[in-house]
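Final report, Chapter 2: Outcomes

The project's central promise was a pipeline that accepts a single protein chain and returns its three-dimensional structure in a standardized token representation, suitable for archiving and comparison. That pipeline is now operational. To close this chapter, we reproduce one record exactly as it appears in the project archive, with the input sequence first and the structure output second.
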Amino acid sequence: MDRKKTRMLVLGGYLGAGKTTLAVNLARELHQKHGKTVAIITNDQGNVLVDTEYSKGAGLNTREISGGCFCTNFDNLVSNARDLVVTGKPDVIIAEPIGTSTNIMSSVVAPMRSLYPDEFSVVPFTVVVDCVRALDILSSRKERTESTVDLIPAHQIREAEVIILTKTDLVSDEKADRISDKIKEILPEARIIPTSSADLRNVDRIMDLVLSDEVSAKAPTNEKNPGFAFEKAKLGWYSGTFDMTPSEDIDMYSLCTHLLKGVAKEYGADSVVHVKVIVEAPDAAAKMSLVQKDMQVDNIRGSRYVREKGMLILNARVVSPPKRLEETMRGLIEDVRREYDCTLEVTGEKCFMPKPESPSHFFFE
């Protein structure tokens, strides 16, 4: 690893694939086992991200670029990366683009490696793929519905130089092998690394890649598909931030579960792309997520019970008109107020459908 340059890992992948969890786990392992300092740059269409708070809560120097993809905010990405280098001198920066991003190789990876070769050593473009949903994404035979969103995640796989299969603990070895075989049919040259946040299997292989001198070299392309814009236009994006004041001890796990079950009840599994909630108080925190019908605990810090004033952040990416999504989220928050006898004062709220974006840089051959 060239010590004169900051290693940069652009970690792509669709909503709910497990990018942030992987990034935080990788950062911890790099620090604990190799003494490396890692910083993270998060990215989203909305503002006030669960992912940002989660990364900060893990003790990582974190920057957030909101309101649009890295591709349209490339100069901002470079500025934040440079600021991290000056203020924190990280050995590695992990940059996590929005889950619906397309052509990241052409609009982020290639410009970064071509324009700033003396400052950043760019790791081969790495895309995270959810094992639980991979076969559905890659299948060409399934029936498409109004809620089907698979063109973008399949495109992201085609762009990759390295594929990281997450959540392998939730599928059989036979299914994981079938997924790898299917990916190799599409992308014969891809390096595939199966892993899991449950046991951190093969995280050493990912660390070896990051710590090596290997750089991104794949030729960028310009893949145009009207379906990308159509899939993005299906999604409503909700971000809400609330000051939370309990009147008695609250079980954060129960509260988060109650909220996510409410979302699952309001929308069918195919419509729930990714919903995340984090509750933070001075001495405790809990983060949980919902992808389709599957709910999981991403992190609990300290006691699961909280009585001190804290903060609740809710991010929802759902196949829904924004107005209906906003009304649904507000109704669910009100239900939490009643059920858990707490005050939830909104400090920030935004619900919208993202507008089409134009990359500020675009390299392709």
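Archive annotation: Residues 248 and 307 are 6 Å apart (CA to CA).
This record, like all others produced under the grant, will remain available to the consortium after the project formally closes.
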